[in-house]
Design a protein that fits this description.
The complex is a heterotrimer of chains A (about 350), B (about 325) and C (about 350). Chain A has 13 helices and no strands. Chain A is mainly alpha-helical and about 350 residues long. Chain C has an 8-stranded mixed beta sheet with strand order 6-7-8-3-9-10-12-11, with helices on both faces. Chain C has a 4-stranded antiparallel beta sheet with strand order 2-1-4-5. Classes of the chains: A mainly alpha (about 350), B alpha/beta (about 325), C alpha/beta (about 350). At the B-C interface, helix 8, helix 9 and helix 11 of B face helix 7, helix 8, helix 9 and helix 10 of C.
């Protein structure tokens, strides 16, 4: 039958919206107070902050449900808003009125470890070279996301094509591809990356290449599995009966039906690779200072800096967390829509 | 037989399709599935041959093997004067385009991501347009199968009903003006009223294009309606070949009679319902020796186990593979 | 087949099942009424989308009502309103009161449970038999449904059986607790031709043996024709015609029934007989026509049919005949030459 969707009654919507707004304000107030106050110890502040944020999200959900009359996935849309913000800022970074992000000579004239002050010229403070943390976070997003996107692009194209061909041709090709991708999966990723990092130049291009090796085996598997299912469907048989050759079958019949599940995995992969890139930079085998990435910005908090100046780690850490979280939400949504089988796993 | 035999073939006449000793076997973990074991058939130009049988009788495997999808384990398939078996892939694709296939489930036979106007001309995209104008050809093709071009041209398969999808499939198959159309249960997934529309459409297309047709189905009345000649299959072998006009009254093979007696009808109301004992179908992994129908046959004797019956002409045009009729 | 008894066992009165979907309300069952007496078989026929299966499920109480689905009207089993029962009480109906047989025997049986387990579990839950008694009864049930070597079958798994054998197991499970009503939803559709009739015969003989009531839901008019006492023809969620099976099939009153019967190829017809067809498609159930639901496809339709929904009324065409049509094909009138439906061609 048709999948029925609940229809909400109209009465009570206004009160729902009002209650939502009240909860939202209360939540924001609580979070704001917890963030700025120093009346209570840090741990309690963190708990209150988290509680305030959760409260605000609940309130926002009620508010939208009251206003629009249907359920809105608030967390998802907040995530998307964050992604738009980060991607937009990363894309337009050179055009934005940001501070100095990598010129440590010019940084000599600036205060070091300036505390975040939203009203000042360094809203998120400065680091030990006097470089602006906000500007570094934005340029860091540029590098981190660029590396992840590039790696996913390489991995999706190469892995997708190899998987599709091996799933369609089967036989010896399939067995060889199977052995190779299993071999790649058998090498611990971190060791593979460290090994590659010591051989390759630490540039965006080579890091992206190294990270793409992580995505290829799972891409091959997904594309292959989907190709095998699609190739058994009757419309492929029908196209064969019309006389379609292999290339045409792959391009016209298989590819359009495999590309969506592969893309949905690619979105999830972006978040994995953002983390992987950050780990590499944190370990010092990724992009090198002073060029910022979220990973090497977090690494600046090593050897006691974090205890004295927590914002040095908190700013890139929060950026990393929210970005990965949002890409995961997006990937999950995409898989539910385009690849229901793997979404259930 | 369920047996073999070539008595029903008509080698003296021009034939659109001739299938000799077709064998289809699939290896599985526990042995070999004998889907089709030595099928012979021929098709005169403009003739419709109905292949009647239950699931597992090998009728669909036979249809696909004739299409060389995949090529059969053994035997020969001649389309007009061209021998398809053993041909190289490229020339075979070209030669095979004179034979087209219509499948059972019209919705899954159409690529869900493409539009009707692209789906119907897929064959021409592959083999070339000649001097046809694309837009007018698509429209005339859609109209010829009773679809309104305006309404369906830009739709995707899931936006159409099952009957409309089957019309698109038929349009796609006849776009290349083939000589032979193989229909594999084309109406069995459709509603009764839609089934009648599609049967009429196939009949009209056959007359208009001078098609020869192989019509594979399990519904006795449907097969009789559309065919000139009916071939009854059981477990990969032929039981009986007869003119379809004689199907109801003159069929002789015990299995054909069983099929006819199994058609539920109003007359059942006059008969007390007798509970019957379930019968077990023999496995196609290990088909019975001799006549394959003997395990379910009321006439079976020792001879049926020892000796495989061959098709014999019992009446003009009627061939039966049974020792006891 | 029919055994007279006091009062109907099942009374369905003005039943509506409405699904609220994002595209709008779908009135899958739109005001259907019928009665079934013990020992009687009612056939519900219609094409896909006619609402016959939803009707069957609603009668069983299998449709969960909630914000997305509303059910109104009454289903009285032996005077008790099925939809007024608590879920726990309703579950008590399934087995001892109502038995069910669905289309696909493979999905009705749990693939990891043995045949015997399916039967004995039901017996022990509802009839509280001992393990030994339950096994004995299970063997007896398998015998009744014509399964050879019942003792060996008890230890087999569903996938080891053929389709027809599995459907017999499903029937045995449905009969385990001696239900008084059996609802069979397309019980033969997934089966081979030679097995279909065996299953229909089996159901019919069980019904008469046990004086059960049966509702046989099917799209196969042949199956319904031979093995039901009364038939109810459904189109787009409504009953278009009801009456004794034989008279309905011999002289249909509703143009839809008539056209549907004429579109089935008959064995007695010569090859290449052009079949009568019903032009057009069934209505979009989110936007059904205002008047008669069949009106847009009907050759007899006029302005009355476009504006006014016909009610199901008794017609003098025979005993217990009912039809919902402004211009029924009553036998006197159907002798006239100008009573045909749309012939093959453009009917609209």
């Amino acid at each position: 039958m048709l999948a029925p969707e609940p229809v909400r009654r109209r009465d009570g919507r206004t009160s729902l919206a009002l209650a939502g707004a009240a909860i939202l304000v209360a939540g924001l107030g609580l979070a704001g107070w917890a963030f700025t106050t120093d009346v209570v110890v840090t741990f309690v502040r963190m708990v209150l902050l988290a509680a305030g944020i959760l409260l605000a999200i609940t309130g926002l959900g009620r508010l939208f449900r009251g206003l629009l009359g249907r359920k809105v996935d608030v967390v998802f849309w907040l995530g998307m808003a964050w992604l738009v913000l980060v991607l937009g800022a990363a894309l337009c970074a050179p055009l934005l009125p940001l501070g100095n992000h990598d010129d440590s000579v010019a940084g000599l004239t600036e205060p070091i470890f300036a505390r975040p002050d939203l009203g000042s010229s360094h809203p998120f403070g400065t680091n030990n070279y006097g470089l602006d943390v906000l500007s570094r976070a934005v340029y860091g997003a540029r590098t981190s996301i660029l590396v992840a996107l590039l790696a996913v692009l390489i991995g999706t194209v190469v892995g997708g094509l190899v998987g599709m061909v091996s799933g369609f041709v089967r036989g010896t090709t399939d067995r060889v591809v199977g052995i190779l991708s299993n071999a790649l999966l058998a090498v611990p990723p971190l060791i593979l990356l460290i090994a590659l990092g010591s051989v390759l130049e630490p540039s965006v291009r080579s890091i992206a290449f190294a990270l793409s090796l992580l995505t290829i085996p799972s891409m091959v598997r997904l594309a292959r599995a989907n190709t095998i299912t699609v190739a058994e469907r009757e419309f492929v048989l029908a196209a064969r009966a019309l006389g379609a050759g292999r290339v045409r079958l792959l391009r016209r019949e298989v590819l359009p039906n495999v590309v969506l599940p592969v893309l949905s995995l690619a979105v999830v992969m972006i978040s994995v690779l953002v983390v992987a890139e950050a780990s590499l930079s944190f370990l010092g085998i990724g992009i090198e200072q002073p060029e910022p990435t979220w990973g090497n910005m977090i690494a600046e908090g090593q050897s006691g800096v974090m205890e004295k100046h927590p914002f040095i780690v908190v700013v890139p850490g929060v950026c990393l967390f929210l970005t990965v979280f949002s890409f995961n939400l997006l990937g999950e949504k995409a898989q539910k829509r385009w690849d229901p089988r793997s979404a259930k796993l | 037989m369920a047996g073999s035999g070539t008595a029903h073939l008509r080698p003296g006449q021009p034939r659109a399709l001739a299938v000799d000793d077709l064998v289809v076997e699939f290896p599985v973990r526990r042995g070999t599935v004998h889907a089709v074991s030595g099928l012979n058939l021929d098709l005169l130009p403009g003739e419709t041959l109905g292949i009647l049988g239950e699931s597992g009788c090998g009728k669909s495997s036979a249809g696909r093997a004739i299409m060389q999808l995949p090529p059969p384990t053994g035997g020969s398939v001649r389309l007009g004067e061209v021998e398809l078996t053993g041909m190289k892939a490229q020339p075979m694709r070209k030669a095979r385009s004179r034979m087209q296939l219509v499948l059972q489930d019209p919705v899954s036979a159409l690529n869900p991501r493409r539009k009707v106007k692209d789906l119907v001309v897929e064959g021409l995209e592959i083999w070339g347009w000649g001097d046809r104008d694309r837009a007018t050809f698509v429209d005339s093709l859609l109209s010829s199968v009773g679809l309104d071009p305006e309404a369906v041209r830009d739709r995707r398969p899931h936006e159409l009903s099952g009957g409309q999808c089957q019309r698109v499939c038929i349009a796609r198959s006849i776009a290349l003006e083939p000589d032979v159309l193989i229909c594999d249960e084309p109406v069995s997934s459709l509603d009764v009223s839609v089934q009648a529309q599609i049967l009429n459409l196939l009949e009209k297309a056959r007359e208009r294009l001078g098609l020869s047709m192989v019509f594979i189905a399990h519904d006795v009345a449907v097969v009789k309606n559309i065919s000139d000649r009916v071939m009854v299959m059981y477990l990969g072998k032929t039981c009986e070949v007869l003119p379809s006009a004689d199907l109801e009254n003159a069929a002789l093979h015990p299995y054909t009679r069983l099929l006819l007696a199994s058609v539920p009808s109003e007359a059942d109301a006059d008969r007390e319902a007798e509970p019957t004992t379930a019968v077990e179908m023999p496995s196609p992994l290990d088909p019975p020796s001799g006549c394959r129908f003997r395990t379910r046959c009321v006439l079976a004797t020792d001879r049926c186990a020892a000796e495989e019956p061959l098709l014999r002409e019992m009446n003009p045009g009627q061939f039966v593979a049974c020792h006891h009729v | 087949m029919m055994t007279p008894s006091d009062g109907p066992l099942l009374v369905v009165d003005d039943l509506h099942t409405v699904f609220h979907t994002p595209r709008g309300e779908v009135r899958a069952v739109d005001g259907v009424s019928f009665q079934v007496a013990a020992g009687e078989t009612l056939g519900l026929v219609g094409e896909s989308g006619s609402g016959k299966s939803v009707l069957g499920r609603t009668v069983m109480g299998l449709i969960a009502t909630g914000p997305a689905t509303t059910v109104s009207g009454q289903v009285l089993l032996d005077g008790r309103d099925v939809h007024a029962l608590k879920p726990g009480q309703r579950r008590q109906l399934w087995g001892p009161e109502i038995g069910m047989v669905f289309q696909d025997p493979m999905t009705s049986l749990n693939p990891v449970k043995r045949v015997g387990t399916h039967l004995t579990e039901t017996l022990r839950r509802h009839l509280h038999c001992s393990r030994k008694e339950a096994t004995e009864r299970a063997v007896d049930l398998l015998n009744q449904v014509g399964i050879p070597e019942p003792v060996r079958r008890l230890t087999q798994y569903p996938h080891e059986l053929s389709g027809g054998m599995r459907q017999r197991v499903v029937i045995a499970t449905a009969l385990a607790c001696d239900p008084r009503l059996l609802i069979a939803d397309e019980p033969t559709t997934a089966l081979d031709v030679t097995v279909q009739k065996q299953i229909l015969d089996l159901l019919a003989s069980l019904v008469s043996e046990r004086t059960m009531a049966m509702i046989l839901i099917s799209h196969d008019l042949g199956a319904v024709a031979g093995r039901t006492d009364r038939v109810q023809v459904m189109y787009a969620g409504r009953t278009v015609e009801a009456g004794p099976t034989r008279t309905v099939f011999d002289s249909p009153d509703h143009p839809y029934t008539d056209a549907l019967l004429a579109s089935i190829p008959q064995l007695s017809d010569q090859p290449h007989t052009v079949l009568r067809t019903i032009e057009g498609n069934p209505p979009d159930m989110t936007r059904p026509p205002r008047g008669c639901r069949f009106g847009p496809r009907c050759g007899r339709a006029d302005d009355t049919c476009t504006d006014l929904m016909p009610a199901l009324v008794a017609v003098p065409d025979g005993p217990a005949r009912q039809v919902a049509c402004h211009h029924p094909l009553l036998s006197i009138e159907s002798l006239e030459p100008n009573a045909p439906l749309t012939e093959a061609g453009h009917g609209r």
